[in-house]
Amino acid sequence: MASVREPPNEQAVLNIYEAMRSELSQIYSNITDLEMQVSEHSLVINAIQPLDQSRKCFRMVGGVLVERTVREVLPAVQRNKEGLEEVVRKLYETLEKKKKDMTEFEAKYQIRLRKQDDPNKEEGDKKKEGNAQGVLVGAAAAAAASSSQ
After folding, report:
1. What is the distance between the alpha carbons of residues 99 and 20, in angstroms, rounded to a whole number?
2. CA pair distance 82, 99, nearest whole angstrom
3. Euclidean distance between CA atoms 16 and 10, whole angstroms
4. Which of 41, 97, 123, 148 has the most neighbouring CB atoms within 10 Å?
5. In what ranges is there compositional bias, type Basic and acidic residues (predicted)?
6. pLDDT band of 7, cuts 50, 70, 90
7. How would you classify residue 62: left for phi > 0, otherwise alpha for psi between -120 and 50, otherwise beta?
8. Buried/exposed code over 90-122 (b: 16+ C-beta within 10 A; e: otherwise)
């Protein structure tokens, strides 16, 4: 962890840990979005590559649809795809570093997630009861949705 100061209390440790988890979640989300864009770029490249290079081709630039030729658009789409792949690669590197930092933080402050607790504890029994209640709510919502059709 880059911070040299120790958190003053248990709540501060939990706040830092939740912030770390949130940051990991955001990185995963960004990676997913960018990988989808890379996939879309690949589809476009595969679709226009075999076409006549002088054929009309339309491209969205800053929210405006512009007319170009395949010869002009193909290299730009390929460059964009390569740039996206580079960003995804860097995000994966960042993700690994953050996961390592989080694991070290968990070890240092002996943090365990509740789902990893011993199921024989009373809290585990209460949690199971809470999960069952969540299922009932979900089933009631599904039944209400189907009856309104």
Report:
1. 9
2. 26
3. 10
4. 41
5. 111-130
6. confident
7. left
8. ebeeebeeeeeebeebeeeeeeeeeeeeeeeee
pTM of the model: 0.70
What are the start-end ranges of the E strands in 37-119? 56-61, 64-69
**102, 21 in Cβ contact below 8 A?**
yes
User: Could you give the CA distance from residue 127 to residue 117 in angstroms, rounded to a whole number?
Assistant: 11
In the chain, what are the domain boundaries? 10-111, 118-149
Largest interatomic CA distance in the chain: 72
Residue 112 φ/ψ, nearest 5 degrees: -130, 140
Distances (CA, A) of 130 to 59, 134, 139, 140: 51, 6, 14, 15
Distance separating alpha carbons of residues 139 and 107, to the nearest angstrom: 39
- CATH 3.40.50.300 holds for 10-111: no
